[in-house]
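User: I'm preparing a small set of examples for a lab meeting where we compare how different chains pack in three dimensions. I only have the primary sequence for this one, and I'd like the structure in token form so I can line it up with the others. Please keep the answer compact; I'll paste it straight into my notes.
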Amino acid sequence: MLVVKTSLKEFKGKGIGLVAEQDIKKGESTWKFNQVIDHYIKEKDITEEMKEFFKIYGCKKDGTYLLNIDNARFTNHSKNPNTKSLGEEKDNIAIKDIKPGEEITINYEEIEGPIDFIDVEE
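Assistant: Understood. Below is the structure token output for the 122-residue chain.
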């Protein structure tokens, strides 16, 4: 679950993104696993009607999706991100200072492996 103050904003060409609403210092946690907010769902248990939702909002690894039910699911991909995952069920931390109003991003490839869409940078 997110452990910093955030809001959502529309980003042209990317859709909705997660935005910092406070100063976040390099090394500070932005997200921590919380079993009440963050759920693991096996791909085989996802119905046809749910597949698109999980593809957009879930994080898939080894046949299992992690789905955040807070706004962390709006964290967009970047090849030049400002946060990094420390590993499964470990914190995401800021890898540079993040100012209020700045989009919070992460490199999906470091979590899921190669992705099949074009990176959109501002």
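A couple of notes for your slides: Residues 115-122 have pLDDT under 50 and may be disordered. The first strand starts at residue 6 and ends at 11.

User: Perfect, thanks.
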